[in-house]
Amino acid sequence: MEAEPFILFGKDHLLAVSAVILTAIFFPLYLRQVSPAFKLRFGYILACILILNELIKPYYHTQFFGYDLFRVLPFHMCALSAFSISFFLITEKRILFEVAFFWGIGGGLMALLQPDTPFDFPDPVFIIFYLSHGGMLLAIGHASIALGNRPRLDSVKRAIMISLVVLVIIYIINLILGPPANFWYLGARPEGASIMDIMPEPPKHIPIVIGLGLIMFSLIYLPYWIYDQITAKNAE
Predict the structure, then answer these.
(1) I need a surface site. Which of 33, 50, 55, 212 has the fewest CB within 10 A?
(2) How far apart are CA 98 and CA 103, in angstroms?
(3) What is the average pLDDT across 37-52?
(4) pTM of this prediction?
(5) What pLDDT shows up at residue 195?
(6) With DSSP H G I counted as helix, E B as strand and the rest as coil, what are the percentages for the chain, rounded to 5?
(7) 68 — phi, psi (to 5°)?
(8) Calpha distance 164→156 (Å, rounded)
(9) What is the pLDDT of residue 1?
(10) Domain extents for the chain?
């Protein structure tokens, strides 16, 4: 069975997105019932798999799929989110969870809905893309749902400040490496259809991207803020 060109919101796309989101939510819900020791071991194993995948991804993308090395180095937001949530599961450093939570959910959902993949299922790049992003979101779901971590209002502020600093660093990396390096899509639009198609030409789109990021971070935190307001009101 040969893969067809990727169709945005086609059957394969919607099935892959649904599978990733449902797994990232319901598997951690199941893991809430198991012992703390098992949850920790599962987190360690998942973290090691994610780290190993991100480290070897440049190799198999260049060797087997013909990608340029500078295009597939692990500097995209989702790759950094995978590293961050993995090291959180190993070290329990709070800041790593906060960064991964907002980057992974915000950037991960955008990537799932607007994947930079040329072909549909069963193309290996399509499968690897959704397995990689699915693993990252599963790790965030595990840390949040199974292990009981959650962001606070200060988490939003820290995530925004770190994001702005890293954005500058990534932009400089793109300039140093030159095309086809396009991490965080700061230098050019993704190959596939995306919201960037209606934005100004890069890098003039960066202020809009920052604004959208601020809105997205706020929307991600909004359910927690509403919950805290209701809880505080009921406690009065």
Answers:
(1) 33
(2) 9
(3) 97
(4) 0.93
(5) 79
(6) 75, 0, 25
(7) -75, 140
(8) 12
(9) 61
(10) 11-235
